[in-house]
Amino acid sequence: MKHNALILGLAAATLAGCASEGPSIETERTYQVEWIGERPLIDNSHLTITLGRDGRAYGNAGCNHWFASYELKDDTISFGPAGSTRKMCAPALMEQEQRFLDALPGVQRWDFSAIEQLRLWPAEGKPLRLWPER
């Protein structure tokens, strides 16, 4: 009887050691935005998010460079108000950029989809969806 309990205990410990947590957000890695809420990005536009180890997030908003503070704890993430440079681009790019900058302060949590796409979720609505840059 003790032998069976020992075998079961070792098997459980082995399986627990093999279990891996899912992917996690990496700091100092750039993520490419693919969708903002319910809308995909304009073809050939380039929006990025990099989370610095120092609590500052930054990237390209499609036309301008942006920056904001952020806090990351477990599966929650929040961004402070975003600032940006002030270059003018085509009206459609400027509208997309503004939607992106307006979405950031509403983000409350993150996760990865089944296809390992990073999702930044607001309190309500669809997430920002991102891929790690290669």
Give a verbal description of the structure.
The protein is α+β, with helices and mostly antiparallel strands and 134 residues long. The protein has one domain (26-132): Lipocalin, CATH 2.40.128.270. Helices cover 22% and strands 37% of the residues. The protein contains 2 helices and 10 strands, in the order αβββββββαβββ. It has helices at residues 2-18, 91-103; strands spanning 30-36, 39-40, 48-51, 56-60, 65-73, 76-79, 83-84, 107-112, 118-122, 128-132. Strands 1, 2, 3, 4, 5, 6, 7, 8, 9 and 10 form a 10-stranded antiparallel sheet that branches.
What is Rg?
20 Å
Terminal CA distance: 54 Å
Helices and strands, in order, run as HEEEEEEEHEEE
Number of E-state strands:
10
Q: List the total number of helices.
A: 2
Shape: globular
- Please identify the top-level CATH class: Mainly Beta
Q: How is the main sheet built?
A: 10 strands, antiparallel
| Multimeric status of the protein | single chain
Unreliable stretches, pLDDT < 50, 5 or more residues?
3-20
Estimate the mean pLDDT confidence. 88
How many domains? The number is 1
And the CATH topology? Lipocalin
Index terms:
single chain; 10-stranded antiparallel sheet; 10 strands; globular; 134 residues; disordered N terminus; Lipocalin; 37% strand; 22% helix; alpha+beta
Put the structure in a nutshell.
With 134 residues, the protein is an alpha+beta fold.
Task: Summarize the helices and strands and which ones pair or pack.
Blueprint lengths: L1 H17 L11 E7 L2 E2 L7 E4 L4 E5 L4 E9 L2 E4 L3 E2 L6 H13 L3 E6 L5 E5 L5 E5 L2
Antiparallel strand pairs: 1-2, 1-3, 1-10, 3-4, 4-5, 5-6, 5-7, 8-9, 9-10
